[in-house]
Structures are given as C-alpha cells and as structure tokens.
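Here is this case:
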Amino acid sequence: MRPFHPAPLLLSLAVLAAAPAAFAADGANTPKASTALPGVSLLGEPVEMPGLNRKRQLRLYLPPGYATSNKRYPVLYMHDGQNLFDAATAYAGEWKVDETLDALAKEGKLELIVVGIDNGAEKRMTELNAWDNERIGKGEGREYTDFIVKTVKPMIDRQYRTLPDRANTAIMGSSMGGLASHYALAQYPQVFSKAGVFSPAYWTAEPAFSFVASKPVPKDARVFLLMGGKEGPQMNADVKKMAGVIGKTGHPAKNTVLKIVPQAEHNEAFWAGELREALLWMFAPDKS
C-alpha cells in the first residue's frame, strides 16, 4: 500500500464528505434560493438501500420534451445528487446539470434522463468506495453500486420512458463519485457502457488499479477521465496511471479520454464547465 499523505487532500475530501450535514446546519439561518429548473424534481420518498440499513433520496431530471412526446431516452446515473441541480442543496456550488442538458436539448444535440443519488453525508467516503481503507473505513461501494443497479435502475425503467439497454445507460461522478463510477463500469459492464470519471479519488483505493486491469470492459465502453492540474500531484499521477492501466487491457484509444486542465481545481465549477464536452463525447453515435 502506498504511503498515505493526508494534507491537504484528505482535509478537502473529508470536508466534502461532511458537507451536506454542515450545509443542513447552516441552511436554517442562511437559506439559498433554488436554482433548479422545471425539469428537476425529488423522486418520491427516500429509497431503502438493501444491505446498508439506510435510505437514500433520489433526484430526477427529465428533458424539456418529455411530457409532450412518446420518446424514450438514455439515462445517466450520477452521485452526490444534492450538488447536481440546485444551489439551495449544494455544498459549494452546483454542477448545473439541468442548465447544461436543457441547452443541449434546445440545440438538438442531446436529450437525457438524469437520476441523481444523494450522498450519505458522513457515509459518503465509505459508501462510494468499493474497497476498505484503514483510515477511512470499511468500503460499502459494492452494496451502493448494487443499490443503483438492482433497485434504482429497475424502478426508473418501470416508471419512466427509458432506453434501458447498456448502450443507453451511463454513470458519472466526481472525486469519490469518480472512483465509484469507474468501479460501476468495470463491475457491471452489462449495465453501463459509459462512465464519466471526474477527479477520481484513486488515492483512497489502491486496489482499483489491479481491479480495472483484471476486468477489461467491452471494447465499445467509453471512459472519460478528467483531472485538474491543481488537484495535487498524487491525484494527477494516479489518473495518468489509470489511463495507462486501461490502455494495457487493450481498450481502444478512441474510447478513452484523459483530459487534464492545468489551472483547474477540485470543485463543482470545474466539473460543471466540463460537463457538456464529456456528455457529448460519451453519448456520441458510434461511427465505427
């Protein structure tokens, strides 16, 4: 196991892990106005997570034409649902997923259903990690991913006009959510064909490298790796290492992106700014 260098990275991610709870405490005194667009809604009551003895709130984005069409749509599953659509629930700014996708729909370029799974506040660091970490705790990522695949996805496919096949199903997240998204693609390649792996926290999960090496994904799977140059030497080295691991499995270079933005930092503003490009690449028609 590599040496552990906690500061400043561990501090920043630990703060992010606890952010929803901290925001809830502050929110009573300084509520923020909602920025969610009409296509965003809470998806009923929190859903039971089998094997984890807890529930999780889901958030839903439907494209502008959903209500007036009979079309079926691809689905993107995303972690940290509180931070995706609404400044009122986000810790440090939102991803602007709804604004980005409304614009893409208006341009006739892409229409998606998005399902956001709220993070578990103090459980975030373990819930989004499929591997145990002696300083962070026992990994619950396998159960969390099973929850998405075996509980959330079937429910969404029953209740909404989805394109449920793997070719039209993707997963995306940042930091621990980036790690979780990469794990989900490798663990369930029959379910997901695309993963947006933004600022992945591979530093919390050394076994991720050997796991990806031992489980080559189908040749048509698309992996979008993103990192900010100012996110730290360890994170930058790790994402480059993972890109190399993917390449050594024989995965086609055309289906892997490694994008490092030199001046970018670890925050929602960075991820929001890169979302459009990543989604257009992930969901582009296969021309091969």
